[in-house]
Amino acid sequence: MSNSQNTEIFHVPVLLKESIDGLNVLSDGIYVDVTFGGGSYSKQILSALGDGKLFVFDQDEDAFKNRINDDRIIYIKHNFRFLKYFLKYHQIEKIDGLVADLGVSSNQFDTDYKGFSYRTDGPLDMRMNKKASISAKEVVNNFHENDLKRIFWKYGEIKNTNKLVKQICEYRASNKIESINNFLDSISPCVPKINDYKYLSKVFQAIRIEVNDELTSLKELLMQTKDLLKINGRVSIVSYHSAEDKIVKNFFKSGNFEGIVKKDLYGNKIVDIEPVNTKVIVPDEFEIEKNKRSRSGKLRIAKKIL
To answer: Which of 45, 144, 173, 179 has the CA that lies 20 to 30 A from 253?
Structure first.
């Protein structure tokens, strides 16, 4: 076993200590970090892990430049929606805990060719997995007007969605939207003069969520935890977008995504997972000062009870 951990900085983790403390790491346990990134959460788990195992997932190949030299880790270059499949491949039926830091890392924002940020020009891409068929360019150039309205309203909560979509459709009728700057030109009449960065962040976020099918992947991940977690096994999830947090909150509360708690004939709740923290955990002022990304972070922790 080697504990040499020479990783590149991928991004500053959010609610790191709280997330891993919430797992109650067992020395001989089996854990999964489904969003490896720069390896910060994995390193924190390893520091508490004895001869257990840690499986790490990430669909962004760049994340694996940050490999930790430790034979307790097994790396899996895939989306976490395939969690159960790959654990079964490695003959793992049950796990003691799982951690996920949802959203986009600062490395992904700062890499021009990924196209996640409006701050620099580059290809309009936004695919976390470069092998995926649909990119942001496909969305803005070819998606139907009604689909664009759904995307910007549901994933971005953009108030002038109709105006925004109309502007995109008019622009693309005579121009191909190839790059980030092309896209910014196409929507410029819709961008407010004050707090333009907030507006653009929501627009890019909405497209990114659609391109990577993020909410569906999250739901599939959560449903798999029902079968994979051992009794008293725990899951810690840091979310940033309100739709993500609602999915996690409802699932931890009721075992479904509608938040409807089912009861038996005697009025007892029928749940196999329950929240550990009754109130969502958010970063303190000190962490926010160090890492602005953490401002919207929300941590929820749950454990398997049946």
So the answer is: 45
CA distance 77 to 185: 35
Q: Structurally, what CATH architecture does the domain formed by 112-212 represent?
A: Orthogonal Bundle (1.10)
Q: Is residue 231 helix, strand or coil?
A: strand
Question: CATH classification of 16-106+214-304 is 3.40.50.300, yes or no?
Answer: no
| Buried-exposed string 161-177: b where 16+ CB fall within 10 A, e elsewhere | beebbbbbeebbeeeeb
d(CA 147, CA 97): 37
The DSSP line for 152-208 is: HHHHH--TTHHHHHHHHHHHHTTS---BHHHHHHHHGGGS-SSSHHHHHHHHHHHHH
Alpha carbon of residue 83 to chain centroid: 14
DSSP state for residue 123 in the 8-state scheme? B
∠ CA 285-14-31, nearest 5°, is: 145
Q: Where in the chain is the domain with CATH 3.40.50.150?
A: 16-106+214-304
Residue where the block lists tokens 């930790």: 68
User: Which part of the chain has CATH 1.10.150.170?
Assistant: 112-212
Per-residue pLDDT of the chain (306 residues; tens, 9 = 90+): 444 344 444 557 899 999 999 999 999 999 999 999 889 999 999 999 999 999 999 998 888 888 999 999 999 999 999 999 999 999 999 999 999 999 765 444 444 445 568 888 889 999 988 888 899 999 999 999 999 999 999 999 999 999 999 999 999 999 999 999 999 999 999 999 998 989 999 999 999 999 999 999 999 999 999 999 999 999 999 999 999 999 999 999 999 999 999 999 999 889 999 999 989 999 999 898 887 778 889 999 999 998
* Residue recorded with tokens 């590149």: 8
